Amino acid sequence: MKTYTPQPIDTSGVTISDDIGELTELLAKNVHEVYVQGRLAEGWRYGPRRDDAKKQNPTLIPYEELSESEKSYDRQTAMETLRSIIALGYEIKRVRPGLSGQD
To answer: Which CATH number covers residue 46?
Structure first.
C-alpha cells in the first residue's frame, strides 16, 4: 500500500479577526447539524455508545448538548475552513444580518 502524506493548505500565517472568529461557532454548529442529518438519513440513531452494527451513536444530539471535546472538533473544522479560505486569497465579510437569530 502506498503511503499517503497529507498536504493541507498552509494556514500558519493567517490571522482571524474577532468578527470572523465569531463565525466559527455558527459554522461549527452547522457542521454538526449536517453530520447528524447525514447519519440519520443513513439509518443511524442515538445510542448511549457507538455501535456500528446497530447504527447507534451518542453524538446524534443537538450541538448544544455535545461535550466540549466534541464541540472542539467541530470548531476546529470550521476554523480551519475559514483560515483556508483566507489563505487562498478570498475575503470573508458580513454584508447583512444573517439567519442565526443573534442579530
So the answer is: 1.10.490.160
